[in-house]
Amino acid sequence: MSPVSPSRRTTLFAALLLPFLGSPLLAAEEGVIIPQPKVDLAAGEGIQTLVLAGGCFWGVQGVYQHTEGVISAVSGYAGDTKEKATYDLVSHGGRTNHAEAVEIKYDPKKISYGKLLQIFFSVVHNPTQLNFQGPDVGAHYRSAIFYQNDEQKKVAEAYIAELDAAKAFPKKIVTKLEPLLRGFFPAEDYHQDYATLNPNQPYIYFNDLPKIANMKKVFGELYREKPVLVRQAAK
User: Fold this and answer.
1) Does the pLDDT value for residue 3 go beyond 60?
2) Would residue 165 count as lying in a domain?
3) Domain annotation covers residue 145
4) DSSP per-residue string spanning 42-60
5) Which of the residues are catalytic?
């Protein structure tokens, strides 16, 4: 596995708080309780795909890997060309229009598109933060739904309007709706399953494990204890 630069994820506050790992003082932030969409996609036949961006892909992937009905959740890049879909380019803001994203394949008979969006807005990230999430700053950390067809776009638009009208958040949602024109490109192998493989890494401990804990708390009926991993699927 290739090393990840400490400056990329391990923030100063995390390093300073390392001695307190496991402390009850480091309680997870609460997930936001929001209504489910009034409009959803029809269940359809076969495995469906959704591409979401909500900050660092490690945490987004981690949450959906613990979600029942999800067949796979792969970290990667969306928003620009295949040639620019590398960690080196994406992590240096301004050199590409990619966002760190996650491709979610799911069984619509077990979980709906709308429910996946509800999880996205509730526990995956803060959709009112423009081009940053937690300690990560830049347009490559933007909140975005990369829709594949008009139906996905319409449901997402309607849901955002519903949440804003209900004042589900103290600020307006800034999530972008972007067409998945150029495709989704999986990230390098060492980014896959990162939250599961590195639970004591300071960035994961402080930023991503609370999201997974909130998934279990808020959406307990959809929480799977054993995550579905990329490495398992590849075998």
Assistant:
1) no
2) yes
3) yes
4) ---SS-EEEEEEESSHHHH
5) 56
